[in-house]
Task: structure prediction
Amino acid sequence: MAKVIFKRPDSLTDKQFHYCPGCTHGIIHRLVAEVIDEMGLQDDTVGVCPVGCSVFAYDYFNVDMFQASHGRAPAVATGIKRCLPERTVFTYQGDGDLASIGTAEIVHAAARSEKITTIFVNNAVYGMTGGQMAPTTLPGQKTTTSPRGREKELNGLPVRVSEMLATLDGAVYVARVSVHDPKHIVQAKKAIRKAFEIQKAGLGFALVEVLSTCPTNWGLSPKESIKWLAENMIPYYPLGVFKEPAEVK
Amino acid sequence: MSKVLMKGNEAIGEGAIRAGCRHFFGYPITPQSELPHYLAKRMPEVGGVFLQAESETSSINMVYGAAGAGFRTMTSSSSPGLSLMQEGISYLVGAELPCVVVNVMRGGPGLGNIAPAQGDYFQAVKGGGHGDYKLVVLAPASVQEIIDMMQVAFDLADQYRTPVMLVGDGILGQMMEPVELADEVTLPEVPAKPWAASGLKGRKKPNIVNSLYIVPEDCEELNQRLFAKYDVIAAQETRWEEYRLEDAEIVLTGFGTAARIAKSVVDKARSEGIKAGLIRPITLWPFPSEVYAKAAAHANKFLCVEMSMGQMVEDVRLAVNGKKPVHFYGRSGGMVPLAKDVLAEVKKLMAGGE
Amino acid sequence: MLQEVLIAGFGGQGVLSTGQLLAYAGMIENKQVAWIPSYGPEMRGGTANCGITISDEPISSPLVTEPTTLIVMNRPSLDKFEKSVVPGGLILINSSLVDQKVTRQDLQVLEIPANRIAEELGNTKVANNIILGVLIELTGIVSLEAVVESLKKVLPARRHNLIPVNQQALEKGMQLAKEFKNKQ
Ligand SMILES: Cc1ncc(C[n+]2csc(CCOP(=O)(O)OP(=O)(O)O)c2C)c(N)n1
Result:
């Protein structure tokens, strides 16, 4: 009998992803879905997707989903979780959504220690609207709105979201991972699982920042993008666990 | 003069620079993003500032600061972003600050889509934000008119100390047309702004930029002052285009892209022997009501064409005031009326159908 | 004269810039012109198209919903737009990329193996201009001189060395159109 070695997680629909070749949103969707499957949470999970390239995530996750206005996903998730405390609620947000327009919402959701899980996809650029500068765009990085490269005087310096949120007492688990190679993908999945376990244990707000590629807007091939991520993003955004409660260590 | 082919969105940017605007704050959104792309390059070339805000809420508040400090300033967005700005616009009105706000409209409600639409007419002309106020609303219909109207927008804003809104749609923003650009740019005269809060610099009494009128009598006085100003604007600044109107039996009307489509229908109808004409408001507020009232004397019906479920048609009905029937044809949600369908509607109406 | 041209293909095939070249040429000849693209994420990796209106009269509507000429650079575009062409209109197909046939009988149709011819000219990037050459010869929409003039405006200065091969492509297209006319 043939052994199934590659199976679509139940928590993903059959719908084909619309992401560009080499974009890692698809991998991250899959990791989240696998964790939901493995923890047996498909039944009681409610997801909130953002405005950004993952705006259609409600078509891909095979669980109850909300579509939030730009940046406000943590507020929507708060409303859901406060009504349905037993459900597993997660937000899935890009860097423009979470770290620019939605900074206030994520900071206060973390400060209140909302028992939600946030998957934060950092690709250092605005993907959906045409490669504009994001709050996480690296110094000197060229985008359509920083045509001379991000300049400190004009645009300031990038936001390290994980480090920043880790300073809040309400944020109980904060980790940064990457998905640029199989080894890191395995680690990323572990972190995502932990962020859901913490929610299930009722411990508080958990966030996993996932470094991601955007070949289309970086103007690189998928292969070059992986290399660019490893060589440029990881030095600026070190991987690791910034906050972890004793209960799950 | 040189003639260049330009996108509508770029024309907004170039028009602003030629009008002396040197401070732009905005947040990316389709279908207006070529404007911030253009200004990100262009502003530093002319010693100006292009700053990407973290949200439209922030953009409009940055505009509040720049305008209050006495500078020509603007922001731009598309429908969802404009919804976010409404609170800020109301504050700008309350503080009587001049600025220009651009809305390149797209399909709604909600996240809607990025296709061209005109569903934010009500939001633009009937308030949008809280409180008693009007905005001057300009609705160009070609790339050349966009360039010309940006100058008008900044001048009116300064002259009347009011925010001015310029509305377009995805088609106007994305299309390219030839424009005439003066080779030598002489920056326009900007009226003195003795009210600006830009540092005392020898002045004794501090200037305060504020929209808080805690005493109701004072707030009513503000409202009366604003509306006295609006009366002057309505009397002096109403703009419109008439086309083959003199002997028209059916008057088509619409603004922006919808008006261009209606205009092509006027010609098609005329070639089939139907006496059709067009009124195109260029200022959506103040609305050219008198032109409709006059046309109602000879025309026997009106047809309002919009890229919405019918918003401007309400103002047309108020203007015609029951003298003649006012019909409506619209497509919405990012769909655009086709000339052949509007023509069919005209024929149906002329044949006496409803 | 009122000509409405729709150019349709995949993103990255130069659909939009070919349209701009045509619009520029019309402007150089002091005609009224408008160019309008499909825009937004739908064109990323998917289909891209643009409409160009060239007219002696002011252009009322810039939307090209019933083209007088359709230029087809991929199969989905033929499926999508064949029915929109005005009766008696023209369809130009890049047959190096599209193997499908036009089904309508009331149109003039020309299949141009543009990529193959461009290869013969030594530069596959000029395929679109071969088709443009056919268009200007068959319709007289703009002159060859005007297109060559607009190449100078559309191409950045460092690419001006490519003008001769582009002109060759235009002329090759015009020659094909002449042969086609003679056969008829
Ligand atoms: C109020 C509002 N402003 C702007 C937009 C336009 N917009 C859509 S997605 C986006 C940025 C998305 O970037 P990011 O969050 O980094 O996600 P990515 O697309 O890179 O995955 C913007 C600015 C909007 N939809 N609503």
